[in-house]
């Protein structure tokens, strides 16, 4: 019998993880199409955290596992403007005049995505909104009217000092939002996205001086929003100074999935192939 090499094990792991992701996707589609997943059971959440806390790492994993949409409001706004939708044209007019897009426009953009984006059938991750209590209240009002109230508000918490080293080494895949780090989470191939092979970039505002200003603004705005969701009983804080895998397990714990493992996962764990 030929010996099992490290390359064979790595290849088997890769195939297993791809198959596992596909199973999650198909289960999510079946639930949505067959009505097995009620609105009360679907995943509806806000992901909060300062720049560099790991939202760009964890949001895609949540999206993939639960087959839900990821609504990054900055990307969504740019897409609406590019498509020249009525909301996009209205937003562009305001931005061209140097103004801030109103809360009503942003909430209506989110509402539009929930109604028209098929990926949102099982739920959503909202990233970048709300930033104020008034926005949170307006969002809640819309979601309740749509019978899609929030279930979770997860905050990735990390000391500001740790963020400087994280941010200054961050690499981003613009099309998907996937993030890497030159030291802590490097891509398999230098400056290329693991999934598509497309080039990664380093954002011009990912520097220490800009970060300190952004953090000051973030804390000033976010503290009241965190308090708001605490009173709603849906807030959870996650220690984002941990490595990404431990952060992921902590998030699964919030969802009640910390012990959720399929029989195949348990078997693969015993032979050292599970994640």
From TrEMBL:
<dbReference type="GO" id="GO:0006172">
    <property type="term" value="P:ADP biosynthetic process"/>
</dbReference>
<feature type="binding site">
    <location>
        <begin position="52"/>
        <end position="57"/>
    </location>
    <ligand>
        <name>ATP</name>
    </ligand>
</feature>
<feature type="binding site">
    <location>
        <position position="214"/>
    </location>
    <ligand>
        <name>AMP</name>
    </ligand>
</feature>
<dbReference type="GO" id="GO:0005829">
    <property type="term" value="C:cytosol"/>
</dbReference>
<feature type="domain" description="Adenylate kinase active site lid">
    <location>
        <begin position="170"/>
        <end position="205"/>
    </location>
</feature>
<feature type="binding site">
    <location>
        <begin position="99"/>
        <end position="101"/>
    </location>
    <ligand>
        <name>AMP</name>
    </ligand>
</feature>
<dbReference type="GO" id="GO:0005524">
    <property type="term" value="F:ATP binding"/>
</dbReference>
<keyword id="KW-0547">Nucleotide-binding</keyword>
<feature type="binding site">
    <location>
        <position position="203"/>
    </location>
    <ligand>
        <name>AMP</name>
    </ligand>
</feature>
<dbReference type="Pfam" id="PF05191">
    <property type="entry name" value="ADK_lid"/>
</dbReference>
<dbReference type="InterPro" id="IPR027417">
    <property type="entry name" value="P-loop_NTPase"/>
</dbReference>
<feature type="binding site">
    <location>
        <position position="73"/>
    </location>
    <ligand>
        <name>AMP</name>
    </ligand>
</feature>
<dbReference type="InterPro" id="IPR007862">
    <property type="entry name" value="Adenylate_kinase_lid-dom"/>
</dbReference>
<keyword id="KW-0808">Transferase</keyword>
<keyword id="KW-0496">Mitochondrion</keyword>
<keyword id="KW-0067">ATP-binding</keyword>
<dbReference type="InterPro" id="IPR028587">
    <property type="entry name" value="AK2"/>
</dbReference>
<dbReference type="GO" id="GO:0005758">
    <property type="term" value="C:mitochondrial intermembrane space"/>
</dbReference>
<feature type="binding site">
    <location>
        <begin position="128"/>
        <end position="131"/>
    </location>
    <ligand>
        <name>AMP</name>
    </ligand>
</feature>
<comment type="subunit">
    <text>Monomer.</text>
</comment>
<dbReference type="Pfam" id="PF00406">
    <property type="entry name" value="ADK"/>
</dbReference>
<dbReference type="InterPro" id="IPR033690">
    <property type="entry name" value="Adenylat_kinase_CS"/>
</dbReference>
<feature type="region of interest" description="NMPbind">
    <location>
        <begin position="72"/>
        <end position="101"/>
    </location>
</feature>
<dbReference type="GO" id="GO:0004017">
    <property type="term" value="F:AMP kinase activity"/>
</dbReference>
<comment type="similarity">
    <text>Belongs to the adenylate kinase family. AK2 subfamily.</text>
</comment>
<dbReference type="InterPro" id="IPR000850">
    <property type="entry name" value="Adenylat/UMP-CMP_kin"/>
</dbReference>
<dbReference type="GO" id="GO:0046033">
    <property type="term" value="P:AMP metabolic process"/>
</dbReference>
<feature type="binding site">
    <location>
        <position position="135"/>
    </location>
    <ligand>
        <name>AMP</name>
    </ligand>
</feature>
<feature type="binding site">
    <location>
        <position position="170"/>
    </location>
    <ligand>
        <name>ATP</name>
    </ligand>
</feature>
<dbReference type="InterPro" id="IPR006259">
    <property type="entry name" value="Adenyl_kin_sub"/>
</dbReference>
<protein>
    <recommendedName>
        <fullName>Adenylate kinase</fullName>
        <ecNumber>2.7.4.3</ecNumber>
    </recommendedName>
</protein>
<keyword id="KW-0963">Cytoplasm</keyword>
<feature type="region of interest" description="LID">
    <location>
        <begin position="169"/>
        <end position="206"/>
    </location>
</feature>
<dbReference type="GO" id="GO:0046034">
    <property type="term" value="P:ATP metabolic process"/>
</dbReference>
<feature type="binding site">
    <location>
        <begin position="179"/>
        <end position="180"/>
    </location>
    <ligand>
        <name>ATP</name>
    </ligand>
</feature>
<feature type="binding site">
    <location>
        <position position="242"/>
    </location>
    <ligand>
        <name>ATP</name>
    </ligand>
</feature>
<comment type="function">
    <text>Catalyzes the reversible transfer of the terminal phosphate group between ATP and AMP. Plays an important role in cellular energy homeostasis and in adenine nucleotide metabolism. Adenylate kinase activity is critical for regulation of the phosphate utilization and the AMP de novo biosynthesis pathways.</text>
</comment>
<keyword id="KW-0418">Kinase</keyword>
<feature type="binding site">
    <location>
        <position position="78"/>
    </location>
    <ligand>
        <name>AMP</name>
    </ligand>
</feature>
């Amino acid at each position: 019998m030929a010996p099992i090499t490290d390359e064979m094990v790595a290849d088997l792991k890769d195939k297993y993880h791809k198959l596992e992701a596909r199973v999650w996707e198909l289960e999510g589609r079946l639930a949505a199409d067959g009505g097995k997943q009620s609105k009360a059971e679907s995943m509806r959440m806000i992901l909060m955290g300062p720049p560099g806390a790991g939202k760009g790492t964890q949001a895609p994993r949540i999206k993939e596992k639960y087959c839900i949409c990821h609504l990054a409001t900055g990307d969504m706004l740019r897409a609406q403007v590019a498509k020249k939708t009525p909301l996009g044209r209205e937003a562009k007019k305001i931005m061209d005049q140097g103004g801030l897009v109103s809360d009503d426009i942003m909430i209506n953009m989110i509402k539009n995505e929930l109604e028209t984006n098929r990926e949102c059938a099982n739920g959503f991750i909202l990233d970048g909104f709300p930033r104020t209590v008034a926005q949170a209240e307006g969002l809640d009002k819309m979601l309740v009217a749509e019978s899609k109230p929030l279930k979770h508000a997860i905050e990735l918490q990390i000391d500001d000092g740790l963020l400087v080293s994280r941010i200054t080494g961050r690499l981003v895949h613009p099309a998907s939002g996937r993030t890497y780090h030159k030291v802590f989470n490097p891509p398999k191939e230098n400056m290329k996205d693991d999934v598509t092979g497309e080039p990664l970039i380093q954002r011009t505002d990912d520097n220490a001086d800009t970060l300190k200003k952004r953090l000051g603004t973030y804390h000033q705005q976010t503290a009241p929003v965190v308090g708001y969701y605490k009173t709603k009983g849906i807030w959870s804080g996650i220690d984002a100074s941990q490595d990404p895998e431990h952060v992921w397990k902590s998030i699964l714990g919030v969802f009640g999935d910390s012990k959720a493992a399929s029989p195949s996962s348990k078997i693969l764990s015993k032979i050292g192939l599970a994640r």
